[in-house]
Amino acid sequence: MKTGVFFTAVLGLLLLFFISGAVWADAGPHGGYTDTPDACATCHRTHTAPGPRLLNSDATGNEFCYTCHNGTGASATPVVSTHANTDFANSAEAAFSLACTQCHDPHGNASALAIVREYVQVQAGASPVTSGPVVFTAREGTNSFDDGVSPPSSRICVTCHDNANNPGFPMSNHVGGANHVGGDDFTSLDCTACHTHSLDADLYTEDGFMP
């Protein structure tokens, strides 16, 4: 009698295990990702996260990005600053700034440089507007910052700096990397050769990416 109960219990546990396993496999949280959960742990904690979205820091917005991208912790793109236009003369608009994640996808994209988003979040007045698809795979030439051939919406810099998204003040210098009247020829350079994220190594100075 006891033996029958034992085998029944074991059979029940095995059935529960396999049925539950099937449910986890079909509707689990890790579908589509590679089997490298340690990469997730760089930013997320499952049970002890102090921040929202299981983030391992209570810092928010750009501050969270700066926990690594402050010139000491990240292997690439150290010392960044927000993109604004308050530090140079003749600015076309009032003070503004962008969040890192408006241009960059923190979860990455193997086919894009600098983990630039496929769709950049453009601020149009008080409302964010999603741009057209950005194809940014090179720093020069085709699919670069501004290759002069691809549609404006697909070029990372021109996503904002064209007449549609910046009425009256479109990008006019170095379109396609070419020289402008009275200027120099920058065909062989990319935008960030002059327009860096930060000019003075100060994270909190909004340099506006100006040269």
UniProtKB/TrEMBL annotation:
Protein name: Doubled CXXCH motif domain-containing protein
InterPro entries for the chain: Multihaem_cyt_sf (IPR036280), Paired_CXXCH_1 (IPR010177)
Species for this entry: hydrothermal vent metagenome
Top-level taxonomy: unclassified sequences, metagenomes, ecological metagenomes
Doubled CXXCH motif domain ranges (all copies): 38-72
